[in-house]
Amino acid sequence: MQWFYLLMTLAGGIAIGIQAVINGGLGKKLGVIEAAFISFLIGTVALFFVVLFFGKGNLLAVFEVPKGQLMGGLLGAFYVFVMVMAVPKIGVTAAFFSIIAGQILMSAMIDHFGLFGGQTFLLDTKKVIAIILMLASIYLYNHK
Q1: DSSP string of 93-117, one letter each residue
Q2: 3-class SS at 66?
């Protein structure tokens, strides 16, 4: 069953790559903030129908969760806004190098310190070297 989740995350990554260039083009035509709004609106409508026909959870439980857990939507909106703004200026690959670097840097801190209730996975020398090499790859890719 692990292969299913690996394939689904691979498909998600492919979708995000395609989304970046589509939203970047939309941003050129509509404006950055407007394109981010339209992107989220269409996604919200799509998820509404998925919840309506396939949902088995309890949406009213949203009033019982810790308020910090509701920040995901704001963080997602920020991500889409940044990509709509950046992709037309620096390209999809450069934007993703930086996005992935930010994800890995934050993920390493979350893992190392067990932030947000996560399990602790300590950083070691090999992991730090890997992060440094990743940052060097961003420099090499964007250096002219």
Answers
A1: HHHHHHHHHHHHHHHHHHHHHTGGG
A2: coil
Residue 37 to residues 53, 95, 113, Cα–Cα distance (Å):
24, 20, 34
pLDDT per residue rounded down to tens, the chain (144 residues):
789 999 999 999 999 999 999 999 999 999 999 999 999 999 999 999 999 999 998 999 999 999 888 999 999 999 999 999 999 999 999 999 899 999 999 999 999 999 988 899 999 999 999 999 999 988 898 887
Q: Where are the domains of the chain?
A: 1-86, 91-144
Q: What pTM was computed for the model?
A: 0.82
- Residue 82 in tokens: 């940044």
- 8 A C-beta contact, residue 57 and residue 102: no
